[in-house]
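Sequence in, structure out. Go.
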Amino acid sequence: MAGRVLLSIGLVGSMLVGGWGISAALEPTDAERMPEVSQDDFNGINRAIEMLYSSISGPAGEQRDVEGFRSILAKDAVLLSMRPSASSDGGFEPMRMTPDVYIERAMPMLVRAGFTEKEIGRRLEVYGTIAHAMSAYRGNYSNAAGEALVVRGVNSIQLVKENGQWKVISILWDTEWPDGSNPVPDRYISADGEQQ
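Output:
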């Protein structure tokens, strides 16, 4: 019995040293937490989120997949980014965009900067025909001086099952701030998320 206990402690210790963390080793999978959700629904949600990231990512000079981006958005989808408020000192407010406004304003900047965004962790909840993903991301890009920079944050992604297909109805995101505050919580980052 003592040998088993020591083996268990050794395994947990090696997982911690290896960068896993106890929560990653012990938390149930989404399928275990939500047995009522079909594998087809998990796959559809995953496809939509993967397409969201891949459609806006790429090297400098490469056009983004605008049609792919549009294809995963539900009717009347909205995109919101948190930004410093113009009306209050130190406050923040959401900047609302339609998909067309985002494509017109953001996509050219993504192409110039060579912005590539990867999901580094996800916390998902699904109920019937609605889903919510807190999707942590890491973005790599270059500024006007050519310096390689990194940004991290969380996309709060709401999805709906529209005519049998999972679509993104809204995205609200916030980032880690330049002064080092507002770090992405570890609970949103998968065990291998920072190695991507």
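Check: Residues 1-29 form one domain. DSSP finds six helices and six strands in the chain.
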